[in-house]
Design a protein that fits this description.
Helix content: 25-40%
Shape: globular
Distance between the termini: 36 Å
Bound molecules: zinc ion
Number of strands: 23
CATH superfamily of one domain: Metal-dependent hydrolases
Largest sheet: 8 strands, mixed
CATH class of one domain: Alpha Beta
Number of helices: 17
CATH topology of one domain: TIM Barrel
Strand content: 15-25%
Structural class: alpha/beta
Length: about 550
């Protein structure tokens, strides 16, 4: 007897070969055998007739931020309901380990902005049963998880561990760099998937202080990459700011021998060639024998925000005063004509790496706080400002100011040009990821990116064949990150499976729920056309929900071939 037989399925195995009808048997958490339809009839303790639906490997989401959430939510919502079976966390280097007890407060403060979680949520949520990175992995393993999990060592945590509060203020000295390098080697030995960092200007902590990794010198990057290189494995992941050139990253890859995953290659219509120029530089490096990837997203970047925490604007240097003042002084700061003039001045010059470049027609009012303003909902700031004969920045800030900054806006700024996205995603050096699941919780939710790729880009747009779309979500990320025996349906491999209805698969529009610790809100999205998800042979979700009976079949992944 086999534990499970899924019969009469259209098998899309994750290698990119065309689909074929067949049956798949699972035994002891692994794929025992794949055969013709009916080949294992009556062999399964549990026998499932897939009725011709598509059976594929579970989605591997290589850009998530579940580092904090994983300590209080082993179900890793919502990814576990959205066809994902493996997550890589610690991206951009925003992690919670290593962390000394005296560094917890600053670590949580750093996370508030980038994760879109309040300090209260993090304070009441995080279980601090670790200090070092190896202890963090052990704690995750003890706690268990619904999904398979891999973790980066995060640069910002590493700096804070070694430098304390200075981590966000200055470059590291030689001794500090040597100490960090030692810890990189230790983390790789413990099972980190690699080392992650960010030099991006929109990555700020509480009060607008830059994330610590943004203060690293070129020497620090060289030393840490070479330390990882000395272990012979590991992915170097970074979210790139404009001052970090791709030739510099190529040089790091060259001396360390490590592959580099470069995020976030989002198409910005104000600088339409920017990402394509980046990909051309990446491709040129690869012809010289390097292994660089450009991480792209299959989702338009839409962000909901209020002026209490205006992420789309926080990459502007002129916005920093608004991040530094306490909440009760924020209204006055946003009303200050000098503040507004500085923002306007900076916006006048578009920058590829910046989220907002003055495209006021792409900012809309979603929800007003004052019912008297109800007729403004759904309209763009550009239109409303024109009707009122006002400058759009003034209009937005005045409106929000009149509602105690509670007005909810949505920004559909970048990555929404479908022709450009098609070119990006089909580039041979692109890696499709960037869900940011677990982060930016009040701004957007792209945890369902895989279902969106299958529904929108395969079924509706025909950009990819079904087997190509599946490969992008499974076999390819497994091979890029060297995740062994996953991402492909093959006898002997782990039984991470996803059964979908290809006619309906997709994701629902985002909706707000209030289930974070303390009842704080987050955006979430629901699966469409998911019939079942299995992790290591155990069904963890059906078409409606995560199955509590599944327990925590996910494994902490510590061994990689990359
Ligand atoms: Zn990220």
């Amino acid at each position: 007897m086999r534990d499970l037989v899924i019969d009469n399925a259209l098998i899309v195995d994750g290698t990119g070969v065309p689909p074929y009808p067949g049956a798949l048997a699972v035994q002891g958490g692994r794929i025992a055998e794949i055969g013709a339809v009916g080949a294992f009839a009556g062999d399964g303790s549990r026998q499932l007739d897939a009725q011709g639906m598509t059976l594929m490997p579970g989605i591997i989401d290589t850009h998530t931020h579940y580092d904090a959430q994983a300590t209080w939510d082993p179900e890793l919502r919502p990814s576990s309901s959205l066809g994902v079976t493996t997550v890589v966390m610690g991206n951009c280097g925003f992690t919670i380990a290593p962390c000394k007890p005296e560094g917890r407060e600053i670590t949580m403060r750093n996370l508030t902005q980038v994760e879109g979680m309040s300090l209260d949520v993090l304070r009441s949520g995080i279980e601090w049963d670790f200090e070092t990175f190896p202890e963090y992995l052990d704690a995750l393993e003890r706690r268990g998880s619904v999904l398979n999990t891999a973790a980066f060592l995060g640069h910002s945590s590493l700096r804070t561990w070694v430098m304390g509060e200075d981590a966000a203020n200055r470059a590291a000295n030689e001794n500090e760099i040597a100490e960090m390098a030692k810890l990189v080697v230790e983390a790789m030995a413990a099972g980190a998937v690699g080392f992650a960092t960010s030099t991006a200007p929109q990555h700020n902590g509480y009060g607008g202080i830059p994330m610590p990794s943004r203060l690293a010198s070129d020497d620090e990057f060289r030393a840490l990459l070479n330390a990882m290189g000395s272990t012979g494995r590991g992915m170097f992941m970074l979210t790139r700011g404009g001052q970090t050139s791709i030739p510099f990253l190529e040089a790091l890859s060259d001396t360390s021998g490590r592959p580099v995953m470069i995020a976030a290659l989002l198409h910005n219509p104000m600088v339409p060639n920017g990402v394509f120029d980046n990909l051309a530089e990446i491709a040129a490096a690869n012809t010289r024998g390097r292994t660089l990837y450009g991480q792209v997203s299959c989702c338009p970047l839409t962000m909901e925000f209020t002026l209490e925490s205006a992420y789309p604007f926080e990459g502007l240097a002129a916005w920093r005063p608004a991040m530094e003042v306490p909440r009760d002084a924020l209204g006055a700061m946003l009303a200050d004509p000098r503040f507004r003039a500085a923002v306007r001045h900076e916006l006048a010059k578009p920058a590829a790496i910046r989220l907002f470049n003055g495209e006021w027609q792409k900012l809309r009012v979603v929800e007003v706080a004052d019912p008297a303003h109800a007729d403004l909902e759904g309209r763009s700031v550009a239109q409303l400002a024109a009707d009122a004969g006002q400058d759009p920045l003034d209009y937005m800030l005045d409106l929000a100011g009149s509602e105690n900054l509670k007005t909810l806006f949505i920004a559909e700024l970048i990555n929404s040009d479908e022709e450009a996205l098609s070119r990006l995603m089909t580039h041979p050096d692109a890696s499709i990821a960037l869900s940011d699941a677990g982060a930016h919780l009040t701004f957007f939710c792209d945890a369902g990116f895989g279902l969106h790729l299958l529904g929108h880009w395969h079924r509706e747009k025909q950009l990819f064949s079904l087997e190509q779309a599946v490969w992008h979500l499974t076999g390819r990320p497994a091979s890029i990150f060297g995740i062994p025996e996953r991402g492909v349906l093959q006898a002997g491999y782990h039984a991470d499976l996803l059964l979908i209805d290809p006619e309906t698969v997709g994701r629902s529009p985002a909706r707000r729920v209030f289930d974070l610790p303390g009842g704080a809100p987050r955006l979430t999205t629901d699966p469409v056309g998911v019939i079942g998800t299995w992790v290591n042979g155990i069904q963890v979700a059906d078409e409606n929900r995560i199955l509590a009976s599944a327990g925590h079949p996910g494994q902490l992944l510590r061994a990689f071939t990359c």
